[in-house]
Amino acid sequence: MLYVVIAFLCLAILMYLLLGGADFGAGIVELITPGAVREKVRTITYSTIGPIWEANHMWLIIAIVILFVGFPPIYTMLSVHLHIPLVLMLLGIIGRGTAFIFRHYDAVKDDMQRVYNLIFTYSSFITPFFLGVIAGAMVSGQIDPNAPDFYSAYIGSWLHLFSISVGIFTVAICGFLAAVFLIGEVEDEAIKALFIQRAKVLTFLTFISGGLVFLAAEIDGLSLTKERFTDWVSLSFLILATVCLVILWKYLRTGHKTICRLLAGFQITLILGSFGYHYFPDFIIVKSGENLSLFNSAAMGLPIETLGWALLLGSLLILPSLFYLIYSFQRRPAEL
Amino acid sequence: MDDLIAARSQMALSMAFHIIFACIGMVMPFFMATSHYKYLKTNDYHQKELTKAWSRGVAIFFVTGAVSGTMLSFELGLLWPEFMLYAGPIFGMPFSLEGTAFFIEAIALGFYLYGWDRFNKWFHWFTGVVVGLSGLASGILVVAANGWMNSPTGFDYVDGKYINIDPIAALFNDAWFTQALHMSLAAFAATGFAVAGIHALMLINGKNKVFHWKAFRIAIVYGGIAALLQPISGDISAKDIAVRQPAKLAAMEAHFETSKSASLLIGGIPDVENKEVNYGIKIPGALSFLAHGDFEKEVIGLDQFPEDEQPPVMITHFAFQIMVGLGMIMMGLSVLYFFSTWKKEYWQEKRWFLWLFVLATPLGFMAVEAGWTVTELGRQPWIIYGFMKTKDALTPIPGIQVSFMIFTAVYVSLSAIVSFLLYRQIKSLPNMEGEQPIVNQSSTQH
């Protein structure tokens, strides 16, 4: 049953990165769109993600519940040592979710819209950035339960080049996903061309910032590069991801909606898979070397058993209805 | 302000806001589904507009409830990591089920809000019902988790370790039913009165009278029935905590000394130093009766507990008095409403009648806040009653005051914006006096 729980944890993280990420990315795309067509971008964003965005963010809750029920030492370690980036990420989540709904449900469309838009776009940037920082910090080996002072315990644990570069990489990934996703929703040729161009910029950024992650790892003295290039499975994942990227570039021109989306999703899955495979089963790399893994921190026995059953039963209800929801609104987007 | 007080204040503040958003988000879908049902049955244009208007409210409150709930799921760890380290696996069952319920609610809401004229009309209506049911289920599950903190079961505590964990036993702890019943009724009563109050105010304004009457009736019937049932649930709760958490009952009643034939205290200012109560009304034997169903029985007082295991008396007592008092007022208003419908329909045209309900708008939520104050403060100094103290669960990171200030600012501004949005939504309701539907912006907005 432990493996069932781990599988759901991986699924929740992947789904959050893909669906939630595309969602954040919509804000990022809006941020880098010229003012003149922003309103159009907003409309497209709303009609595409409006019906499903709330469900997208449930994946985060599922992941966090799995962590605190099944792997409490991991949850606790994160909450203590990454307190500050977690709070910043939470502020982003609040700002984004509420601004997205407020701007739509404000019965009067006046200057308040500018406030909502500002909050929406910037928190769309901040949230994935800190998510990335947190992910980076987890594997950076800078988390130190025996830290002697405030700085090394609560700031040094996440404020370093590697985590920051993972943060930037995450932002780029989200923007990239959204841009590829939105291309399929546009009828207007001019906007489509703009989106394709933005998707290319973001693909390029994803590539660059991905390289930056390795560079930062070198500078910070993490042996990521060396280890990665000797770990054949995770290396081949990365190579395959890069191949996907090349194919994607080709298809972006012709703009084939489904293939582009699948490729983009597959590519991100590969990147996450490469990271995941590389570290598995370790979840938090601790300075002292006493890493927290999904095995040594699992609440074995009935907690994991019941959690596994709850997830299995829950997914019987959730997955079919979620697919039906996405399918229904894919076939015919929500009208405004 | 030390870190412990800051962390407790931040938690209290987050809960206080979340409970309002969550209550409305879980109860309003039922109102919405009711008016929607009436619309489907009678094809009444007002009911359709009402359904749409309420569904916009549901959307706003669902999101604020969801983000504030997401925050809470992190804050549990950010503020009380020691608690979560041990409690997570034990009381996690309701949370993992709640995750499912919440997910279903989000999916159903997607179908409902965007599903007008897309799906079979009864399927569409049904998704609205699912929003309500899964919201209610979420609420019950989360309250069951809180029940476990009051009545920890499902583990053995040996040498400082929590072993032999049984999450199912923890889910069905002794407090889950009484607390979940009391809270569900409270959510219906509070939301019902709040919504009815707002529509009563619109009725006084005089625009769209027929529309607002239909809205008022639906809301007050839900709220009124819940308010009438609440005293029964309160009685079950009182008898339950008299046995399970006597210190809490003693603090609620400022009952300092264990005594037989204990008297019920109404009002009064507890003097904690001298262990006495000034200015209160005492009804002899009534506390014994309410707690144990017998006017003679002994009721345990605070003297049975060491100083450092006593909950704060003053605030717990006041909060309890406020909750009961407001509950009584709401019960009275419910009687008034049902009586007028039955015998004195012309009262409903009177301004005084409407004004009573306008004034009652916030009462339910004030009672909810007061009630949670009783539950949470009455459990202190424990976070897991009898096993772990709140101060031992506190995060080691210093400077929680800063995060308390940030969260305060966030919640205050969120509430301000939500109120502002609701005000604008209500103000922009179209004129619906005529029989014929008038095309307007709100009917094109989903």
TrEMBL record, chain A:
It holds the Pfam family Cyt_bd_oxida_II. GO terms for cellular component: cytochrome complex; plasma membrane. It is a multi-pass membrane protein. It comes from the Bacteria. GO terms for molecular function: electron transfer activity; oxidoreductase activity, acting on diphenols and related substances as donors, oxygen as acceptor. GO terms for biological process: aerobic electron transport chain. The keyword Cell membrane applies. Keywords: Cell membrane, Membrane, Transmembrane, Transmembrane helix. It is found in: Cell membrane. The chain crosses the membrane at residues 6-37, 58-78, 84-103, 115-138, 158-183, 195-217, 232-252, 259-280, 307-327. InterPro entries: Cyt-d_oxidase_su2 (IPR003317). This is Cytochrome d ubiquinol oxidase subunit II. It comes from Algoriphagus aquimarinus.
Automatic annotation (TrEMBL), chain B:
GO terms for cellular component: cytochrome complex; plasma membrane. Its main location: membrane. The keyword Cell membrane applies. GO terms for molecular function: electron transfer activity; heme binding; metal ion binding; oxidoreductase activity, acting on diphenols and related substances as donors, oxygen as acceptor. InterPro entries: Cyt-d_ubiquinol_oxidase_su_1. Belongs to the cytochrome ubiquinol oxidase subunit 1 family. The keyword Transport applies. This is Cytochrome ubiquinol oxidase subunit I. It is found in: Cell membrane. It comes from the Bacteria. It is a multi-pass membrane protein. The chain crosses the membrane at residues 12-32, 53-74, 94-115, 122-145, 181-203, 215-233, 318-340, 352-372, 400-423. GO terms for biological process: aerobic electron transport chain. Keywords: Cell membrane, Electron transport, Heme, Iron, Membrane, Metal-binding, Transmembrane, Transmembrane helix, Transport.
